[in-house]
Amino acid sequence: MRLLVDAGNSRVKWAVYSAGACVAEGAIAHADADTLAAAWAPFALVDGWASNVASADLRARIDAASPVALTWVGAARAAFGVINHYREVGEQGADRWLAVLAARALVAGDVVVACAGTALTVEALTAGGDYLGGLILPGHHLMQQSLARGTARLDREQGEHRLFPQGTSDAIASGIIDAQAGAIERLRARLAQASGRPSPEVVLTGGGAAALAPHVAAPVRIVDNLVLLGLLRVADAS
């Protein structure tokens, strides 16, 4: 059995695979990392693969919890026919690279990969395998918190997305969704313009994907745990 671990900005997501199938998965807050040892103890693990965009301390806690040595994966200049055009590959979050590698296995053509978590990342990948880079902006809760902390009267309960918001809570919710969907659509339009091909598919993942998907034009689909799928692809090729 193979252990896969994605240490993100807010949570640690993990899965156990056997013979190519997922047999268990989970997600915990960083503060609960010490519970991972008990969660993984029932499995006859033979190896483990992990990525981390959080702290070195969290990585150490995950290493201590794992019953097998973990191979920590970072961004690379090339893999699986994908060329990484990031200027400094070493500064790029491994989660972004792994999400792109997973999306390449799912979509043969041009694709925009959006991970909606603590941050929203939006990546552009061409049909020819050129990963052109992408965008990073605050996720839904970070945007909402910034308004609550930075203004005198915008600490409001969660509103709903409206075409024409007529209340402050709805105006905030609508502004956040439209900003995030707008970032996706702008990068999508740039990729189509650069390639000369039709508007590419969008692959969405992350805890905010379901709320965002209805506001992104088709074709769009949600794929859960895209970073873990990227890790699995790297592990299977090792």
Automatic annotation (TrEMBL):
Binding sites annotated in the UniProt record for ATP: 6-13, 118
Active site residues according to the UniProt entry: 95
Entry-linked Pfam families: Pan_kinase
Cofactor: K(+); NH4(+)
Organism for this UniProt entry: Crenobacter intestini
Protein name: Type III pantothenate kinase
Organism lineage string: Bacteria, Pseudomonadati, Pseudomonadota, Betaproteobacteria, Neisseriales
Quaternary context: Homodimer.
Gene behind this protein: coaX
GO biological process: coenzyme A biosynthetic process
